[in-house]
């Protein structure tokens, strides 16, 4: 792995069998068949225990720039036929530049609170380059979903992997590590909370 100016991290909540979302994702059920309401009420239940999980929640949005796949940004497929601005309302939680991987060009979308969505059509390395240009030596988060994380892991472009494992299984869906070659990781931190296990790994060369 090459030396980079700032750490490239990833925070991802997964089921015990490794899925970040179930099958049949849609606008009405963004997490698909996720064992609950389709909006992650069980998969992301630990978010509601904010005080117990404050450190992990704060780390998840502490990066200076974020990269996500188009499926995480929203349900619109193909050409941008409507002005979809993400799941997070007018003031998304990122408060910085967010680079969305897509095959279809679109002008940047500024939002309240300092978030601007930029749409990148030329691949994962181009998105990382643009994020680095935007924040210099600031940290960059590969924010999901699992398909995007898998691409960055396979390319050796993530330094630190933070997993939040919840005690349920989904059986099928979008799974972390699919298509990723064997890796060497060093566990540097673990903490059990009531509804989740937080694990942090450094990705070794």
TrEMBL record:
Q: Where is the Bacterial bifunctional deaminase-reductase C-terminal domain?
A: 8-198
Read off the Pfam families from this record: RibD_C (PF01872)
Point out the signal peptide segment: none
Q: Which domain of life is it from?
A: Bacteria
**What is the protein name given in its UniProt record?**
Dihydrofolate reductase family protein
Q: What species does this protein belong to?
A: Amycolatopsis heterodermiae
Identify the taxonomic lineage of the organism of origin. Answer: Bacteria, Bacillati, Actinomycetota, Actinomycetes, Pseudonocardiales
């Amino acid at each position: 792995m090459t030396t980079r100016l700032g750490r490239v991290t990833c925070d991802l909540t997964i089921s015990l069998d490794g899925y970040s979302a179930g099958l049949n994702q849609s606008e009405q059920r963004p997490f698909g068949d996720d064992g609950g309401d389709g909006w992650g009420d069980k998969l992301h239940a630990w978010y509601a225990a904010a005080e117990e999980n404050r450190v992990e929640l704060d780390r998840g949005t502490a990066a200076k720039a974020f990269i996500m796949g188009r499926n995480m940004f929203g349900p619109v497929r193909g050409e941008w036929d409507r002005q979809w601005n993400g799941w997070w309302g007018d003031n998304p939680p990122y408060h910085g530049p967010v680079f969305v991987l897509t095959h279809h060009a679109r002008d940047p979308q500024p939002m309240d609170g300092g978030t601007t969505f930029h749409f990148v059509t030329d691949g994962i390395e181009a998105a990382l380059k643009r994020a680095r240009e935007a924040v210099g030596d600031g940290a960059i988060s590969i924010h999901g979903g699992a398909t995007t994380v898998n691409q960055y892991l396979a390319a050796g472009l993530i330094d630190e992997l933070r997993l939040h494992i919840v005690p349920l299984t989904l059986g099928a869906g979008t799974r972390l590590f699919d298509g990723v070659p064997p890796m060497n990781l060093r566990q540097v931190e673990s903490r059990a909370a009531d509804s989740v296990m937080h694990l942090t790994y450094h990705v070794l060369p």
